[in-house]
Amino acid sequence: MDALAGWYPWTKALHLVAVIAWMAGLFYLPRLYVYHTPAPIGSDRSELFKVMERRLLRGIMNPAMIATWVLGLTLVATPGVVDWSAGWWHLKFTAVILMSGFHMHLAAARKALLADQRRHSERYWRAMNEVPTVLMVLIVIMVIVKPF
Ligand code: HEM
Mutate which of 15, 65, 97 to test ligand 1's pocket (most atoms within 8 Å of Cβ)? Predict the structure, then answer.
């Protein structure tokens, strides 16, 4: 575990690279659902959205989420990085769990849209678009300001 301390700046840099890629997808995918939902079933537009959604989720978001988790847990295992008595870590971790749950919700919704099932309205996806923003603001304040 002590060897991890020497890698700390690198682990953190790569953690942030993975976070940025993951967040880009979490912002963009619900946007695609906003425009996919009203597209007529079987239309070229609807079929194009299916391809864009699959590539974004499988090609970028899934690998980025896995890398964020692996590198984040490596930081947790690095001696002296997390002060377990501080509250910020617990709130950050809760927000990260919610972010991962949101990712799973988007993945399930992609499968439904692929099968031409429109389970949610365009308005629903517009509202859902705000979820990753709120969680991201909370996480960044916890991890940088560490207010408690
Ligand atoms: C997926 C699970 C995650 C775990 C286990 C995790 C864990 C950690 C840990 C232990 C640190 C080091 C904190 C420090 O040096 O004081 C860190 C740094 C950081 N994390 Fe995460 N993290 C995760 C996801 C995220 C997400 C989703 C975001 C943003 C939306 C994020 C943003 C950051 C930032 C900005 C830093 C750098 C803080 C600094 O400058 O010290 N992390 N993370």
Answer: 15
